[in-house]
Design goal:
The complex is a heterodimer of chains A (432) and B (446). With 432 residues, chain A is an alpha+beta fold. Chain A folds into two domains: 225 residues, Cytochrome Bc1 Complex, Chain A, domain 1 (2-Layer Sandwich); 180 residues, 2-Layer Sandwich (Cytochrome Bc1 Complex, Chain A, domain 1). Chain A is built from 16 helices and 13 strands. In chain A, a hairpin with a 5-residue loop joins strand 1 and strand 2. In chain A, helix 10 packs across helix 13 and helix 10 packs across helix 16. The N and C termini of chain A lie far apart (49 Å). With 446 residues, chain B is α+β, with helices and mostly antiparallel strands. Chain B is built from 16 helices and twelve strands. Chain B has a seven-stranded mixed sheet with strand order 1-5-6-4-7-3-2, sandwiched between helices. In chain B, strands 8-12-9-11-10 form a five-stranded mixed sheet, with helices on both faces. In chain B, strand 5 and strand 6 form a beta hairpin. In chain B, helix 10 crosses helix 16. Chain B starts with a strand and ends in a 7-residue tail after the last strand. The chains are: A alpha+beta (432), B alpha+beta (446). At the A-B interface, helix 1, helix 3, helix 5, helix 11 and strand 12 of A face helix 3, strand 6, helix 4, helix 5 and helix 11 of B.
């Protein structure tokens, strides 16, 4: 029975499905570049706008301004105050989400075909005439302050923030985008307006649209939506210089389970060794139960519910990070196992079978991402920010498959730095 | 990540999809051995979601074995007569798929997302572990450490989670909804092979399972494969009606205070016992669903209007109700006070808001907006076939039928203001409530 089953499993390893997405990239009359996929089977549109820069554009001494401003975009625009704006949006059953990360400010909109013009007009108001009323500033500020206070006693947030500060220092990446209690309390309406002018501009804008709209309709729609945005914003921040000292820092906090963040230098997406490093990370700690870290820390020893490693590409600051949580009396052992696996991977590399399995996983899973208007719009705007061509989707699996055992193991030797692997632990860890 | 569904909160996004279109896309049938099958067609991407739901969750556990439903869910990745531990997930990964499982009060579900041409392999693997699991003492002990770390991560490290656990225990005196899905720690550490296998033998059988396949498939092909892999399994004749210990009538208001030095943001929340959706009888649950939206469903809700915009006594307010439950459930309201507002003041403001809501006619414009969003949610829902699979699976495992799922949007749309007020007056009874304060340590100003 076992042999028969194995044979069947072997047969199933056929070629992966292809992602069936046809991207129509074009320029509108006013010169905006758009990646568009027309998909008419469901009567709605997913629109993604992304402005490069994000929370890292906070002015000196104004940490948290971009974050608070982003939360305020939907709190009233044009002739509508916060409540009137929300009622208008809900009445159209449109969804507008405004969010900010270190490097981007994102606007994700979904709206029905049946009231598309009204929804777009409302979205346009928020992007071109946000009110930033003082009462809204104060009300939303109180929510942000509540979140900052919660983070101060949340071991996960504490670990993340302490780790970022160690690694990035004074660069904006080194502090939380929400700001501090002091910096947020001091922000004025003028600061919010300045933050808006810094971040929301056409020279840093990327656009994707997926759904029930044709190219002929879309061009004029976008030109109208975005015509009144300013041409330029603030200059992008200087490149960060992440530093990893290889030490373990403990932040004492009374809680039963310790939370650890760890990391070392990473590798940029446009580097020829990137896909080798990506595959290497899949084998080391990339998500699945099969990774070496999950096998050694969770499956064999039961030391944690989850342990992961991941490559993070921030603008100019690529890092290789990981996280684990274990009871205070077991975190020490979990960290020893992680360090040992990191070092073993550096010296021994991966096996031919591990490389093959990781390729099968990555190439097979890739088409699964393209499974809805919303997800596709999100992928397409991300591709533009990463400066990928529209042909990337068709060639991406070839790049994965082109990685050889020799290359991945050279990358393991050259890029894994067990001596630089730095840990920040929040809790009451024993034996550290 | 072999995870738990702990949240009882829901939103309109869970409203079922569009009538005309979704009914055309959904096919359901039952195999000869009693296994239910739901097929949802969406050929936009060459992908399939394959799920098996068991009508058994933590509320079906025997006393003294809390957490065993979830523990068994972990152990189902530990191998069968023909698969080594971990081989199932490794096989799915080698096929470019992802797999996982989750446990709730009323169900346990296993799923894979994979290229549509691998569906047969998924059925082979999933049907195998429905009946052929093989476990060793060593697997048991290591995995028990894992679920205890999971409890540490989800519950022990979070004062909010500990508070909700205590509050749930206070709400349900007799029903197993008062016991956490992940289990009480003192019982988790005693879970053994016998407990896991007893649960498995009792509940894991085709006549207690629902197969949901969603994506680029045809009902005919799914039926043929389902008959081949699941249809050949023996039903369990011992399975009986799901009758769990019921709550006695609650006749006294319950109050509790949970203090923890790690609390940064105190809040007050109150749950009321409430009816759930029943087969062919969903109107009261629909009225409560709309009530939760009107009262605490975001920026335009009554609570937000009164407590966040007008009196500014709260930084956040909410109301939650999820009618998808096998037995009586709860309706929860919550207020996070603004700086300088004490919890008793926040509670008084919340009560005042509930009273004034009941005293006035329903805001018909607000109701119209919510009904518009319900209609739109059916359109948006079709963009995510994975969550459609979840909607059908969880509804059927919670005792509803495919017809109930399809009727639900129309039932919601047909609810009148009078029905909402009647449902509100019936549910807002302090004698059927638990009020909880989440607070900092004594001496703190909150």
């Amino acid at each position: 029975m076992k042999a028969i089953l194995a044979a069947v499993l072997g047969l199933a390893l056929a070629l992966p499905a292809a992602a069936g997405v046809t991207i129509d990239a074009f320029k509108t009359d006013s010169g905006l570049t758009v990646w568009h996929v027309e998909e008419t089977s469901i009567p709605f549109v997913a629109l993604e706008l992304r402005f490069k820069g994000g929370a890292s554009l906070d002015a000196e001494g104004k940490r948290g301004a971009v974050n608070l401003m982003t939360a305020l975009i939907e709190e009233g625009a044009g002739s509508l105050d916060a409540r009137a704006f929300a009622k208008a949006r809900d009445g159209l059953a449109a969804s507008f989400s405004y969010s900010v990360s270190d490097d981007t400010l994102s606007v994700s909109a979904r709206f029905l075909s049946e009231n598309r013009a009204e929804a777009l007009a409302l979205l346009r108001e928020s992007l071109t005439a946000p009110r930033f009323d003082q009462d809204a500033v104060d009300r939303v500020r109180a929510q942000v302050v509540s979140g900052i206070r919660s983070d101060e006693k949340d071991p996960n947030a504490m670990a993340r923030q302490a780790f970022d500060l160690r690694v990035y220092g004074a660069h904006p990446y080194g502090s939380d985008k929400s700001g501090t209690l002091d910096s947020v309390t001091a922000l004025t309406r003028e600061d919010i307006l300045a933050a808006f002018r810094s971040t929301v501009a056409r020279d840093r804008l990327y656009i994707s649209v997926v759904g029930d709209i044709s190219r002929q309709e879309l061009g004029p729609v976008l030109d109208t939506l975005l015509a009144d945005l300013p041409e330029t914003g603030a200059p992008l921040p200087p490149v960060a210089a992440p530093a990893f000292d290889g030490q373990t820092v403990v932040i004492p906090f009374e809680t039963p389970q310790s939370v650890a963040m760890f990391g070392q230098p990473g590798i940029p997406f446009d580097h020829p060794d990137y896909f080798a490093a990506y595959l290497l990370n899949v084998v080391l700690g990339g998500g699945g139960f099969e990774s070496r870290l999950m096998q050694e820390v969770r499956e064999k020893r039961g030391l944690t519910y989850g342990v992961y490693s991941y490559l993070v590409g921030k603008d100019g600051a690529d890092v290789w990070l990981g996280s684990v949580q274990s009871a205070n009396n077991r975190i020490h052992e979990a960290m020893e196992v992680i360090k040992a696996e990191w070092a073993r991977m550096q010296t021994e590399g991966v096996t031919e079978k591990e490389l093959k399995d990781a390729k099968l996983y990555l190439t097979g899973a890739y088409p699964l991402r393209f499974d809805g208007n919303g997800p596709i719009a999100d992928i397409l705007v991300g591709m533009q920010i990463e400066d990928m061509g529209t042909d990337y989707i068709a060639t991406r699996n070839d790049r994965v498959n082109a990685v050889t055992l020799e290359q991945i193991n050279r990358v393991a030797r050259d890029y894994l730095k067990p001596e630089q692997l730095s840990f920040t632990v929040v809790g009451q860890p024993k034996g550290l | 990540m072999r995870a738990l569904l702990l949240s009882l909160a829901t939103s309109l996004a869970l409203a079922a999809p569009a009538k005309a279109d979704i009914r055309d896309a959904v096919t359901s049938f039952t195999l000869d051995n009693g296994m239910d099958v739901v097929v949802i067609q969406d050929s936009r991407a060459p992908v399939v979601t394959h799920m098996v739901w068991y009508r058994a969750g933590s509320a079906d556990e025997w006393p003294g074995t809390s957490g065993v439903a979830h523990f068994l869910e972990h152990l189902l990745f530990k191998g069968t007569d023909t698969l080594a531990p971990g081989e199932l997930s490794a096989t799915v990964a080698r096929n470019g798929g992802t797999d996982n499982a989750f446990t709730s009060y009323d169900y346990t579900a296993y799923f894979q997302r994979v290229a549509a041409d691998r569906l047969e392999l998924m059925m082979r693997l999933e049907s195998d572990r429905m009946v052929n699991v093989r476990l060793s003492e060593e697997d048991i002990l290591t995995e028990r450490e894992v679920i205890i770390e999971e409890r540490n991560q989800r519950i022990e490290n979070s004062p909010g989670a500990l508070f909700r656990e205590q509050k749930n225990a206070a709400q349900y005196l007799n029903h197993r909804y008062g016991v956490p899905v992940i289990g009480w720690r003192h019982e988790m550490v005693t879970l053994d092979l016998d407990a896991a296998l007893a649960y498995y033998k009792r509940f894991y059988a085709p006549n207690n399972a629902i197969l949901v396949v969603a994506g680029d498939v045809t009902p005919e092909a799914v039926r043929a494969l389902a008959e081949q892999y699941y249809g050949v399994l023996e039903p369990n004749p011992e399975l009986s009606e799901r009758a769990r210990p019921a709550e006695p009538p609650q006749t006294a208001e319950r109050r509790m205070i949970f203090r923890d030095a790690r609390v940064a943001q105190p809040y007050v929340s109150r749950s009321y016992l409430a009816p759930e959706r029943d087969v062919g009888a969903q109107r009261e649950a629909a009225a409560l669903t709309l009530l939760a939206e009107l009262l605490g469903g975001g920026t335009t809700s009554y609570f937000a209007e009164r407590l966040q915009f007008e009196s500014q006594k709260a930084v956040y307010t909410a109301a939650f109700y999820n009618g998808e439950s096998l037995d009586d459930t709860d309706f929860t309201v919550l207020v996070v006070p603004a700086d300088g507002v004490t919890l008793p003041e926040a509670e008084a403001a919340m009560d005042e808001a509930i009273e004034s809501f009941l005293a006035k006619p329903i805001d018909t414009e607000a109701l119209a907006r919510i009904k518009m969003q319900i209609r739109a949610a059916q359109i948006y829902a079709r963009d995510n076939v994975n969550s459609l699979a979840n909607d059908y699976g969880s509804a059927l495992a919670s005792g509803l039928t495919v017809a109930d799922v399809h009727d639900w949007p129309e039932v919601l749309a047909s609810i009148t203001p009078d029905e909402i007020i009647a449902a509100a007056k019936s549910v807002f009874n302090l004698d059927r409530s638990v009020t909880g304060y989440l607070m900092k340590e004594k001496g703190d100003a909150s």
